[in-house]
Specification:
373 residues, alpha/beta, Spore Coat Polysaccharide Biosynthesis Protein SpsA, Chain A, UDP N-Acetylglucosamine Acyltransferase, domain 1, 2 domains, 5-stranded parallel β-sheet, 27% strand, glucose-1-phosphate adenylyltransferase activity, nucleotidyltransferase, NTP_transferase_dom, glycogen biosynthesis
Length: 373
């Protein structure tokens, strides 16, 4: 796998996550108590032996840069290859189903051209999974493919809940014969994972040709429009996959982690998932604490009731407070007697004594970063 470089594209639409992404890109969304979405993309690459990784930044990336720093936690602080931050020409949040990422890739072609590796593993951060790309690489070589796209197959009913998804259709030889980007009524049950393996020089040629013809979006203008001329194959992924595309999907997939089977597969199936290290004391459970079926990160202090919930680092739950079916992010404080049910609290939220907030499982309440109630 030393012949592959990784390129993480952060140009991902966050229209339906605006309450959570107002101060951060989608890649920096906190997930699973201690992690951020980009941790999974970085860990999958390094666990597969890919040590040259470029991150194509987008929007307000300050919090993301603070999180990844030099890339040391992912063994990417290297003298040769390692982690590279590729600047964006744009400012603000990424909006729309077809983000204008082509110009930013074109502006950073020098980095791609100068790389030693022959292939590029192009990925985003919306798809949360644990995968080793070795099987994808072997499949790509066996098929003599120009591009290998990873996809996850769902039943017809399940696929309707995905918004702004890219769907692919394959023949009996796994060759992609159709690609739909953000269809209103998907005709396929195979959802692209936003990950593909491609020859480095081919990507450079496609980017150059698409820019010269007024293209704006890599998936549409480089891949979908050349479907008939390129040997594009689909690789089916059979493991657990969480697609974070809306507040509801974030809430649902977070709650799925409370299942031990899902947690074990996501964090240990093909290698560990790494994140920024913070030296904090273990969670402290006071005498009156009652915690059931929950994830509680280090640094938290619990004196109330926590049920079916995820608590991030440094959360304080005071006496007689109840946190049910909720997600409480870093350094938030839940006051005495507070009742929270089906609520997402962003970082540094403070709920003062006696407040009661109740959302629905299919419509959780979101409290923005730094809010005091």
């Amino acid at each position: 796998m030393k012949n592959i470089m990784g390129l993480i594209n952060l140009h991902e639409s966050d229209d339906l996550l605006r309450e959570i992404t107002r101060y951060r890109p989608l890649a920096a969304i906190p997930f699973a108590g201690r992690y951020r979405l980009i941790d999974f993309a970085l860990s999958n690459l390094i666990n597969s032996g890919i040590t040259n990784v470029g991150i194509l930044s987008a929007g307000n990336s300050r919090s993301l840069m603070d999180h990844i720093r030099s890339g040391k936690e992912w063994d990417l602080a290297r003298k040769r290859d390692g982690l590279f931050i590729l600047p964006s020409l744009q400012t603000g949040n990424v909006q729309g189903a077809f983000p204008n990422d082509l110009a930013d890739v074109f502006a950073n072609l020098d980095y791609i051209r100068s790389s030693r590796q022959r292939f590029i593993l192009l990925t985003g951060t919306r798809m949360v999974c644990n995968i080793n790309y070795e099987a994808v690489y072997q499949f790509h070589l066996e098929k003599k493919a120009d591009i290998t796209v990873l996809y996850k197959e769902y039943s017809g009913g399940d696929i309707r809940r995905f918004t702004n998804a890219t769907m692919v259709e394959t023949d009996d030889c796994s060759r992609i014969v159709d690609m739909e980007i953000c269809p209103v009524h998907p005709r396929s049950t195979k959802m692209s994972m936003g990950m593909c393996l491609i020859d480095r020089q081919l990507l450079v040629d496609l980017i150059d040709a698409s820019m010269s013809r007024g293209g704006t979006n890599v998936a549409r203008d480089c891949f979908a429009k050349n479907l008939g001329t390129l040997k594009m194959y689909g690789f089916s992924f059979g493991g657990y996959l969480a697609r974070i595309s809306s507040v509801q999907s974030y809430f649902d997939h977070s709650r799925e982690l409370l299942s031990p089977e899902v947690w074990q597969e996501l964090f240990f199936a093909n290698g560990s998932i790494y994140t920024k290290v913070k030296d904090e004391a273990p969670a402290k459970y006071q005498q009156d604490a009652a915690v059931t079926r929950s994830l509680v990160a280090n640094g938290s202090v619990i004196a109330g009731k926590v049920e079916n919930s995820i608590l991030f680092r440094g959360v304080k739950v005071h006496k007689d407070a109840q946190v049910i079916n909720s997600i409480i992010m870093q350094k938030s404080e839940i006051g005495p007697g507070v009742v929270l049910e089906n609520v997402i609290c962003d970082k540094d939220v403070k709920i003062t004594a006696g407040k009661k907030l109740k959302g629905e499982l299919n419509h959780p309440i979101v409290i923005e970063k730094g809010t005091v109630i």
